[in-house]
């Protein structure tokens, strides 16, 4: 009889810590005094996440696998898990007062946040399609509930239901694809699948259909056109901190799995596959940006823009070179911070209300100069202006595509990036160049939570750091690629 050993558990120690933290939060929620409960739960959650992050640093560079090679702690998974944990910590910082004001349950919220992070970590560590599937479901089920946490709001209930139904469809595609790949290759381990395909060729109909179904399922998760239908409604209807968490951590997790599966499990060297991904990349960039131009709600605009950002990542997947994939990793890190940060600003009440439309942001620069400045930085990074993390990420991806001869794809990507300038700068224009009419009884004396402000300032500093000193993260991204190739 085979028993679980310490060696098996070592690569998933961070996941175990996050999951145990969720269990501790449940217990604390039951027994903590009502007066201190919100603060105690937030601090407990942050301590658990920081402990998991410290454990990740001890695993860096060791490339440890466990459970018969089905999970691994390599530089690739560790870097992405840092992203998830960082986004989760920021989400805790900006959520505290939002949860109280919207009468959401603190304990349930933090537990679901932690279990969702643990699912993302399992997804990224998985070298077996079934492990990836289990991690994906842990993340997804937690996310469905988080989206519907505002139970008394019809829009949130609608968003949760749409997310659940379309998520179930994508799960069906993934399971069917896994079963076909298993039938064709006799394994669900990514290294064994690619070895079998390379030996016997990728012409087997089971392999082709299985690969297509897996790609479709992953495209749902990162909102690739035409599998993006859920994104605007879910991002708009979900509680704003949850929207930030989904746009940062969940999307980064989707990128991570997309890259790992396509690099280590499913060979896409065929021109037909490349052409298909080329078309998907162009559609995703263009549809996302064009639809964002038409929006009047800020959250909905950011939702469509997140679709466009998935298109930029697909450009790197089409190219497939090590420099392009390292660009994906860097860009995922930058986008997770700037996307979550932008939604984080929208969680904070301005004159007694949460900003919803562009008109709500009118005069924001005068009323909240520090928050407006931070939001401007996030917007500039989303555009891809110099001295921000977004600029370095786009530069790495576009230059890699140009270097490998994907000229038209690069031109289309640059044009789409230029198109995004219009709707992103609308945010800045309304904040600084429009005078807004405030509702009667607006409380201009209310101060921003120090908890939230600390998280947002730290995130803004990280975005600037990535833009000014990108070498360290870029080197880590390059090293993580070696773990995949």
UniProtKB/TrEMBL annotation:
GO CC annotation: membrane
Keyword Disulfide bond: no
Record domain NADH:quinone oxidoreductase/Mrp antiporter transmembrane: where: 128-419
Keyword Membrane recorded: yes
Membrane topology: Multi-pass membrane protein
Keywords from the UniProt entry: Membrane, Transmembrane, Transmembrane helix
GO molecular function: NADH dehydrogenase (ubiquinone) activity
Entry's Gene Ontology BP terms: ATP synthesis coupled electron transport
Segments traversing the membrane: 12-31, 38-56, 76-94, 106-123, 129-149, 161-185, 205-230, 242-263, 275-294, 301-322, 328-348, 369-393, 405-425, 450-469
Compartment list: Membrane
NCBIfam families reported for this sequence: NDH_I_N
Protein name: NADH:quinone oxidoreductase/Mrp antiporter transmembrane domain-containing protein
Organism listed in the record: marine metagenome
């Amino acid at each position: 009889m085979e028993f679980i050993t310490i060696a098996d558990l070592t690569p998933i120690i961070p996941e175990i810590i996050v999951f145990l933290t969720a269990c501790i939060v449940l217990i604390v929620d039951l027994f903590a005094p009502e007066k201190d409960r919100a603060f105690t739960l937030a601090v407990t959650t942050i301590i658990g996440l920081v402990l998991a992050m410290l454990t990740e640093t001890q695993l860096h560079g060791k490339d440890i696998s466990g459970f018969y090679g089905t999970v691994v702690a390599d530089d690739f998974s560790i870097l992405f898990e840092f992203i998830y944990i960082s986004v989760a910590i920021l989400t805790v910082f900006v959520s505290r007062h939002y949860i109280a004001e919207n009468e959401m349950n603190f304990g349930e919220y933090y537990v679901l946040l932690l279990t969702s992070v643990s699912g993302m970590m399992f997804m990224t560590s998985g070298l077996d399609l079934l492990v990836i599937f289990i991690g994906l479901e842990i993340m997804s089920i937690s996310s469905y509930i988080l989206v519907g946490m505002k139970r008394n709001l019809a829009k949130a209930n609608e968003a949760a239901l749409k997310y659940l139904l379309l998520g179930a469809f994508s799960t069906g595609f993934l399971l069917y694809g896994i079963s076909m790949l298993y039938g064709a290759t006799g394994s669900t381990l990514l290294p064994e699948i690619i070895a079998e395909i390379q030996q016997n060729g990728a012409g087997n109909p089971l392999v082709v259909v299985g690969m297509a179904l897996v790609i479709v399922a992953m495209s749902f998760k990162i909102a690739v056109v035409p599998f993006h239908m859920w994104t605007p409604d879910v991002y708009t209807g979900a509680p704003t901190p949850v929207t930030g968490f989904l746009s940062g951590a969940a999307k980064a997790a989707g990128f991570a799995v997309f890259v790992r599966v396509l690099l280590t499990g499913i060979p896409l060297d065929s021109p037909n596959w490349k052409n298909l991904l080329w078309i998907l990349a162009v559609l995703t960039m263009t549809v996302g940006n064009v639809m964002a131009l038409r929006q009047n709600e800020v959250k909905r605009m950011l939702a469509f823009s997140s679709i466009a950002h998935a298109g930029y990542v697909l450009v790197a997947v089409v190219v497939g070179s090590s420099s392009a994939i390292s660009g994906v990793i860097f860009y995922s890190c930058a986008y997770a911070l700037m996307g979550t940060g932008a939604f984080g600003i929208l969680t904070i009440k301005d004159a007694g209300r949460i900003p919803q439309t562009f008109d709500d942001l009118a005069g924001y620069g005068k009323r909240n100069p520090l928050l407006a400045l931070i939001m401007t930085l996030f917007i500039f990074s989303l555009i891809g202006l110099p001295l921000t993390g977004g600029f370095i990420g786009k530069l790495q991806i576009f230059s890699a595509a140009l270097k490998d001869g994907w000229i038209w794809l690069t031109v289309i990507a640059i044009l789409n990036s230029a198109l995004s300038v219009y709707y992103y700068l609308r945010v800045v224009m309304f904040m600084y160049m429009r005078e807004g009419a405030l509702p009667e009884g607006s409380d201009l004396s209310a101060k921003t939570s120090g908890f939230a402000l600390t998280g947002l300032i730290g995130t803004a500093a990280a975005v600037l750091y990535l833009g000014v000193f990108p070498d360290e993260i870029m080197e880590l991204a390059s090293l993580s690629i070696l773990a995949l190739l």
